[in-house]
Automatic annotation (TrEMBL):
Lineage top rank: taxon: Bacteria
KW Coiled coil (keyword) present: yes
Residue runs in coiled coils: 219-246
Identification of the protein by name: Extracellular solute-binding protein
InterPro entries: Sperm_putr-bd (IPR001188)
Organism of origin: Floridaenema evergladense BLCC-F167
């Protein structure tokens, strides 16, 4: 699955020397590879002001989650002896290994299994215990990358979001359709051939499970125990104009489609720009959740103090407020809270914070057993290519 593994265009931006210490003897370096636009600029300024240690912050920004995962797989470039001499190296850094890297929760299983990252020492994270239990459990894994409540901690969640329904309000009004509220609205006859869905089996099968019964989980292990699932998926497939993980918002804006399912960080900026045309809703029956994490590469240096300061900084309540106010996603510090419980300044963020009732019915997409994975794949292939011997009649991703 490739959640948001695109962000219009690609770029790598290095921001070096954002702040430096007065004494070279006391200088320290914190090197971070992060997802573009995942940290509001206001927080970088705050961190600069509150960072107590003298040193240098080096941010390397990547446009895609898959690029960040690939960076963990890269082997460090061998260093020539002259590269360690300041006068000959031009002052360039001798190592490109980051102290922390952004990773989507879906990639955590593979990163652990491939030994690309190392566990975090939660005793060094002062704010760890203030993180909601659901997020603590999300990153406790065994050596194979599967959920294990007694396992080590392999990541530090710093933001989360949802899968949403986004729709063209003008088209809905013109057709006399009520705004969508839940997954069952995707099966409306009038929407046939005007819907786009992610080309992701876990997302599409998961939302169909929720449509059948909100108590169903995106992580259902035995799909064969839900007899109506296949017929519901076939009916939904007949509604779909195309499947796509990335090119689903432009057709919606142009009116080629009237409704799409996608990820909150893609959708919220579009709503902000086209507020009179585009609307969105978090389905009442519950939805899938995702989280972005800070992970520590296997070959990162032993000094975790600066990285710990960065992680703890993001979990401070006042910083979590700023993050949720200016960012495209929410801080996990406020996950599951009602709008009334939130600080006043972020109570208007209804599309970032689902109600506690919806949140309780929602799931992170977790690793499945090999048998269950095969069930999802077999069902997906049957639905996506039903009645066809070759090819894909509705486009989409891989």
């Amino acid at each position: 699955m490739k959640r948001r593994d695109f962000l219009w265009g690609t770029s790598t931006l290095a921001i070096s020397g954002l702040f430096a210490g007065c004494s070279s003897q006391e200088e320290a370096s914190l090197r971070i590879r992060l997802l573009k636009d995942s940290i509001p600029a206001q927080l970088l300024n705050e961190f600069r002001q509150k960072f107590k240690r003298k040193g240098e912050l080096d941010l390397m920004v990547e446009a895609q989650l898959i690029s960040l995962f690939s960076s963990l797989q890269e082997k460090p470039k061998p260093q020539n002896w002259w590269s360690r001499l300041p006068l000959l190296s031009g002052g360039e850094k001798t190592s490109s290994i980051a102290n922390l890297v952004t990773l989507g929760d879906y990639w955590l299983n593979a990163a652990i299994e491939q030994k690309l990252i190392q566990p975090l020492d939660t005793e060094q994270l002062k704010k760890w215990e203030e993180l909601p239990l659901q997020y603590q459990r999300l990153v406790r894994r065994n050596q194979q990358g599967n959920i294990d409540l007694k396992g080590e901690v392999w990541g530090a969640p710093y933001r989360w979001g949802t899968t949403m329904i986004v729709y063209n309000q003008d088209k809905f009004k013109a057709e006399g359709l009520n705004p969508p509220q839940d997954w069952n609205d995707l099966w409306q006859e009038r929407l046939q051939n005007f819907i786009s869905l992610p080309d992701q089996p876990r997302e599409v099968i998961g939302l169909t499970l929720k449509k059948i019964n909100p108590q169903n989980s995106y992580n259902t292990q035995q799909l064969d125990k839900i007899p109506q699932l296949k017929s519901e998926l076939k009916a939904l497939d007949r509604q779909v104009k195309f499947y796509s993980n990335d090119n689903y918002l432009q057709p919606l804006i142009l009116g080629d489609t009237w409704l799409a399912v996608g990820w909150s960080t893609d959708i919220l900026p579009v709503i902000q720009r086209y507020s009179n045309m585009i609307g969105a809703v978090i389905p009442q029956s519950g939805t899938s959740l995702w989280a972005d994490l800070w992970v520590r590469p296997t070959k990162a240096n032993d000094d975790f103090s600066l990285a710990e300061s960065w992680i703890d900084f993001g979990w401070q309540p006042d910083i979590a407020v700023l993050f949720s106010r200016f960012g495209k996603a929410a801080s996990p510090i406020f996950a599951g809270e009602s709008l009334a419980e939130l600080p006043k300044i972020i109570r208007d963020k209804k599309l970032i914070f689902p109600s506690p009732e919806i949140y309780k019915r929602s799931d992170f997409i977790l690793p499945l057993s090999a048998k269950a994975q095969q069930q999802y794949l077999n069902l997906w292939r049957e639905i996506r290519f039903q009645g066809l011997g070759l090819g894909d009649r509705k486009g989409g991703g891989e």
